[in-house]
Specification:
five-stranded antiparallel beta sheet, disordered N terminus, alpha+beta
């Protein structure tokens, strides 16, 4: 309309002389026309704007729909249980889901593809280059950077994608993880091989009977020539059965064909083409399969050759029945399953341990005895032993539990042995051993303690005796006589010590306990020690704490122990003090001698109380004093001890058990 008005305007403008007048005259008309054109333009613009917004809205919805579909497609691709790789025909990877890396055990950011991975077989790349299909499986060994470095069994299916004209535009690889299935198949194959080897090693035949055809198939069977697929008729099978067993075999065959038997077990004799003699076999069978109507279809079973087993049983029976031991096998409920002849003949009486009876009832009891060796074996799970006397014989019984593969006790084997002669021999040997040990101890103690210590005083006695006959000097004679007397006393002391120690160690030393007062004894010991001590630099201190202390001991042996300790202390104390005394403790008397002498080094302390062992070779004595003190103390049921520090002195003590009654007084050194 606006264009029409504009054209009219131009027409009137060029129309003639009255154009201008007409223009002014029609001013109002022109204004209306202009307004109408403006409104029309606005209306057109508004209309077109609404239309464009609808188009844009529709485009946005279409885009959102496509984007959503793309996301769904990506999600579906990523969640597929198989690996997926898409290539263009130039070998450029367009898309790959994460299942590829997971199946191959590689990291998620792995850069290798099926076409570049050196572990992937070459035949897959060749199929891609040829543009053909491929379906293959292979063993994949992951790289050193792999998350899972275990070998994988992978199936790869490659397919080209063609356009409408049949041209290859893309190539898709689909990967499937076959590892678990592959390992299962291998385990199944291995189990089958093991089963086959087990059947061969065990001499077992597996058979199947088809009820519809009445034909047998068997596995590991010489009758079928070891052909597992060969079908054999019942008549052919029965040709290898013993004539006396044919009736039983035909009966079971008829029952299987009629479907009137669920399971069975029979014992027959069979001679296959490989056998020279009849074999004793056990044939067992049971229903294997039924159809949907419950009709029996097949029976399966095994044939076990028991010939060697039965032969071994016969041999075992011969051996066990001729052994010197009685053998009995019982179940945990005390029922006798087996016993040999010796069990009754040599150890018990007829009727005892009868088969299929409770053992204690065959012995006239209502329940197992209180100390039943079998009950103990069942409770402990270990072999138990018992000895009893029967009709003048000493019988030894061992009860040994028998366990099955589940470590459960299935029974107990009793073994009975007549050990009368052995027990008598043991008693005689023990008596002879004690006598021999006593004799050996006495002899060993005497011979081992003989040393040059005995020869030293003897040499002095002999030598000075000869000098005594040759000298005329009265002073020299008196000196020689004094030396001879001293060595006589020393020799007597050595011999006395040797005999005393030998008697103590050999067990011949008699003890004479008596009741005496320790207070009086230690007063006497003080006088003896003072006479023994000729060193003015040594002070003797007697610690006698009680006014009276009565004990029940062997006084002479007790005095000898104390005197030996004092003699040792005097000998090895060049100056200082020697303190000796006693105290009541732990239900006995502890006597002690402490000195400030030379002491004993740590290296030599392990040699204390050894016989003929002296730490100073120039000191007088035999080295038996401490050994005798120890032997006498231990013979009285006590023990000894000491403490010593080199250069500071020592303390030696003995404790002996005894009965004590005393009255105390304040302790004062005497």
């Amino acid at each position: 309309m606006l264009n029409y008005g504009f054209k009219q305007f131009i027409f009137h403008f060029h129309g003639g002389g009255n154009a201008m007048l007409s223009l002014f005259a029609n001013y109002q008309t022109l204004l209306v026309i202009a307004l109408i054109g403006f409104v029309a333009g606005v209306l057109v613009a508004v209309f077109m704007g609404h239309r464009y917004r609808g188009v844009l809205h529709a485009l946005q919805k279409a885009y959102d729909l496509l984007h959503h579909q793309e996301q769904r497609r990506k999600t579906i691709v990523e969640e597929l249980p198989v690996g997926l790789e898409v290539y263009d025909m130039n070998g450029i990877l367009l898309r790959r889901n994460r299942q590829v890396c997971k199946i191959l055990g590689e990291p998620v950011d792995c850069q290798n593809t099926l076409l570049t991975n050196p572990q992937v077989p070459e035949r897959i790349r060749q199929a891609f280059e040829a543009g053909g299909q491929i379906r293959t499986d292979f063993t994949y060994r992951p790289s050193d950077l792999a998350v899972d470095r275990n070998e994988k069994r992978v199936e790869c299916h490659g397919v080209p994608v063609r356009d409408s004209k049949g041209r290859n535009i893309n190539y898709i690889f689909i990967l499937t993880d076959l590892t678990e299935r592959y390992m299962q198949n291998r385990r199944v194959e291995q189990s089958l091989r093991i089963a086959q080897e087990a059947m061969r090693a065990s001499n077992i035949v597996l058979w199947r009977l088809n009820r519809r055809t009445g034909m047998f198939t068997s596995y590991n069977d010489p009758i079928s020539g070891y052909d597992n697929n060969r079908q054999i008729s019942a008549d052919e099978y029965f040709l290898y059965m013993h004539p006396d067993d044919l009736e039983l075999c035909r009966e079971k065959h008829t029952q299987m064909l009629a479907g009137t038997i669920e399971e069975f077990e029979i014992h027959i004799r069979v001679k296959t083409p490989e056998d020279e003699e009849w074999q004793y076999c056990t044939v067992s069978g049971s229903v294997f399969s039924r159809n949907e109507n419950g009709e029996l279809l097949e029976y399966v079973g095994v044939r076990r050759n028991n010939t060697r087993y039965l032969s071994l049983l016969r041999q075992n029976d011969l051996i066990l029945n001729n052994t010197n031991s009685g053998l009995i096998y019982l179940t945990p409920d005390y029922i006798v399953q087996w016993e040999n002849v010796s069990a009754r003949k040599d150890f018990l009486y007829e009727g005892a341990y009868a088969k299929k009876c409770k053992c204690f009832k065959t012995l006239g009891l209502e329940q197992p005895c209180e100390h039943c060796v079998m009950s103990r074996a069942l409770a402990s799970g270990h072999t138990e032993r018992k000895i009893f006397e029967h009709t003048g014989k000493t019988v030894e019984v061992f009860a040994t539990p028998v366990r099955n593969s589940k470590d459960e006790i299935e029974g107990v084997v009793l073994r009975l042995d007549d050990i009368t002669q052995r027990q008598n021999m043991i008693r005689e040997l023990h008596k002879a051993k004690l006598q021999a040990e006593r004799s050996d101890k006495f002899k060993s103690a005497f011979l081992a303690n003989m040393s040059h210590e005995i020869r030293t005083p003897l040499n002095a006695i002999v030598g000075f005796s000869e000098l005594l006959t040759t000298t005329e000097n009265l002073e020299e004679k008196n000196e020689f006589i004094k030396i001879i007397r001293h060595n006589n006393n020393l020799l007597l002391q050595i011999i006395g010590n040797i005999l005393n120690l030998s008697k103590i160690e050999a067990g011949y030393q008699d003890r004479y306990p008596e009741r005496f007062d320790l207070t009086d004894l230690f007063d006497e010991l003080k006088v003896l020690a003072a006479n023994q001590n000729s060193n003015p630099d040594v002070t003797l201190l007697c610690e006698n704490p009680h006014a009276h202390c009565y004990v029940q001991l062997d006084k002479n042996r007790f005095s000898q122990v104390m005197f030996n300790y004092l003699t040792n202390a005097i000998k090895y104390t060049p100056c200082g003090t020697i303190r000796f005394g006693y105290e009541c403790c732990d239900g006995g008397i502890r006597l002690y001698v402490a000195d400030t002498g030379i002491g004993i080094s740590e290296a030599n302390q392990s040699r204390i109380y050894q016989r003929f062992d002296k730490f100073n070779d120039f000191a007088q004595g035999t080295g038996l004093g401490l050994a005798i003190a120890k032997a006498l103390t231990e013979a009285a049921g006590g023990y000894v001890g000491f403490e010593s520090h080199e250069g500071k002195g020592s303390i030696f003590w003995s404790w002996v058990p005894c009965e004590i009654s005393m009255t105390s007084r304040s302790m004062s050194p005497k």
